[in-house]
Protein backbone atom coordinates (compact mmCIF):
# COMPACT_ATOMS: atom_id res chain seq x y z
CA UNK A 1 0.00 0.00 0.00
CA UNK A 2 1.47 3.31 -0.99
CA UNK A 3 2.04 5.94 1.63
CA UNK A 4 4.42 8.77 2.13
CA UNK A 5 5.84 10.01 5.43
CA UNK A 6 3.58 13.08 5.41
CA UNK A 7 0.44 10.94 5.06
CA UNK A 8 1.59 8.62 7.83
CA UNK A 9 2.41 11.53 10.13
CA UNK A 10 -0.94 13.25 9.48
CA UNK A 11 -2.84 10.05 10.28
CA UNK A 12 -0.80 9.38 13.42
CA UNK A 13 -1.43 12.95 14.63
CA UNK A 14 -5.19 12.50 14.27
CA UNK A 15 -5.14 9.16 16.10
CA UNK A 16 -3.02 10.65 18.87
CA UNK A 17 -5.59 13.44 19.30
CA UNK A 18 -8.51 11.06 20.03
CA UNK A 19 -9.38 11.89 23.64
CA UNK A 20 -9.60 9.29 26.38
CA UNK A 21 -13.16 7.99 26.57
CA UNK A 22 -13.79 8.54 22.85
CA UNK A 23 -13.30 6.47 19.70
CA UNK A 24 -13.03 7.19 15.99
CA UNK A 25 -13.57 5.16 12.83
CA UNK A 26 -10.85 4.39 10.28
CA UNK A 27 -12.62 6.46 7.64
CA UNK A 28 -13.17 9.36 10.01
CA UNK A 29 -9.45 9.44 10.78
CA UNK A 30 -8.52 9.35 7.10
CA UNK A 31 -10.89 12.22 6.36
CA UNK A 32 -9.66 14.32 9.28
CA UNK A 33 -6.07 13.75 8.15
CA UNK A 34 -6.97 15.07 4.70
CA UNK A 35 -7.24 11.74 2.91
CA UNK A 36 -10.94 10.94 2.44
CA UNK A 37 -11.63 7.43 1.24
CA UNK A 38 -8.35 6.08 2.60
CA UNK A 39 -9.67 4.12 5.60
CA UNK A 40 -7.62 1.09 4.59
CA UNK A 41 -4.46 3.19 4.74
CA UNK A 42 -5.26 3.96 8.38
CA UNK A 43 -5.58 0.23 9.06
CA UNK A 44 -2.32 -0.47 7.25
CA UNK A 45 -0.49 2.14 9.31
CA UNK A 46 -1.93 0.78 12.56
CA UNK A 47 -1.02 -2.81 11.65
CA UNK A 48 2.57 -1.71 11.17
CA UNK A 49 3.02 0.19 14.43
CA UNK A 50 5.96 -0.86 16.58
CA UNK A 51 4.87 -3.04 19.49
CA UNK A 52 6.09 -0.43 21.99
CA UNK A 53 4.08 2.42 20.45
CA UNK A 54 2.28 4.78 22.84
CA UNK A 55 -0.28 5.71 20.20
CA UNK A 56 -3.87 5.11 21.41
CA UNK A 57 -4.52 2.58 18.61
CA UNK A 58 -7.23 0.94 20.67
CA UNK A 59 -9.51 3.95 20.14
CA UNK A 60 -9.84 3.19 16.41
CA UNK A 61 -12.86 1.10 15.40
CA UNK A 62 -14.71 0.24 12.24
CA UNK A 63 -17.55 2.46 11.05
CA UNK A 64 -20.12 0.28 12.82
CA UNK A 65 -18.44 0.82 16.17
CA UNK A 66 -17.07 -2.71 16.31
CA UNK A 67 -13.61 -3.97 17.11
CA UNK A 68 -11.75 -5.02 14.00
CA UNK A 69 -9.38 -7.30 15.88
CA UNK A 70 -9.98 -10.89 16.99
CA UNK A 71 -8.41 -13.09 19.61
CA UNK A 72 -5.88 -11.73 22.12
CA UNK A 73 -5.46 -8.45 20.21
CA UNK A 74 -9.21 -7.84 20.28
CA UNK A 75 -9.31 -8.67 23.98
CA UNK A 76 -6.49 -6.21 24.61
CA UNK A 77 -8.31 -3.53 22.62
CA UNK A 78 -11.50 -4.11 24.61
CA UNK A 79 -9.59 -4.01 27.91
CA UNK A 80 -7.94 -0.72 26.97
CA UNK A 81 -11.24 0.81 25.86
CA UNK A 82 -12.91 -0.21 29.10
CA UNK A 83 -9.98 1.31 31.04
CA UNK A 84 -10.66 4.52 29.08
CA UNK A 85 -14.29 4.41 30.26
CA UNK A 86 -15.72 3.23 26.93
CA UNK A 87 -18.42 0.58 27.31
CA UNK A 88 -18.99 -2.17 24.79
CA UNK A 89 -22.16 -4.14 24.35
CA UNK A 90 -21.82 -7.36 22.33
CA UNK A 91 -18.52 -6.11 20.92
CA UNK A 92 -19.91 -2.77 19.83
CA UNK A 93 -19.42 0.79 21.06
CA UNK A 94 -22.40 3.17 21.16
CA UNK A 95 -22.33 6.14 18.76
CA UNK A 96 -22.26 8.43 21.82
CA UNK A 97 -18.59 7.50 22.31
CA UNK A 98 -17.56 8.61 18.82
CA UNK A 99 -15.29 11.63 18.83
CA UNK A 100 -16.75 14.81 17.37
CA UNK A 101 -13.93 17.38 17.38
Determine the number of helices (DSSP H or I, runs of at least 4 residues). 4
- Share in β-strands: 5-15%
Overall number of strands:
4
- Structural domain tally: 1
Helix-and-strand structural type? mainly alpha
List the helices and strands and how they pair.
Layout (H helix, E strand, L loop, with lengths): L4 H13 L6 E2 H7 L6 H9 L12 E2 L9 H13 L4 E2 L2 E2 L8
Parallel strand pairs: 1-2
Antiparallel strand pairs: 3-4
Summed up:
This protein has helices at residues 5-17, 26-32, 39-47, 71-83, and strands at residues 24-25, 60-61, 88-89, 92-93.
Task: Tell me what the structure shows.
The longest helix is centred in the N-terminal third of the chain and has 13 residues, at 5-17. The chain has a single domain, classed as Winged helix-like DNA-binding domain superfamily/Winged helix DNA-binding domain (Arc Repressor Mutant, subunit A, Orthogonal Bundle). Helices cover 42% and strands 8% of the residues. It has helices spanning 5-17, 26-32, 39-47, 71-83, and strands at residues 24-25, 60-61, 88-89, 92-93. The chain has 101 residues and is mainly α. The strands form two sheets. It has a two-stranded parallel sheet.
Which short descriptors sum up this protein?
42% helix, 101 residues, globular, Arc Repressor Mutant, subunit A, two-stranded antiparallel ribbon, two-stranded parallel ribbon, mainly alpha
Amino acid sequence: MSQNPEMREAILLVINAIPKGRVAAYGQIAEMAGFPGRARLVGYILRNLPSDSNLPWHRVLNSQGKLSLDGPSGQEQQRRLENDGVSLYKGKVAKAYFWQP
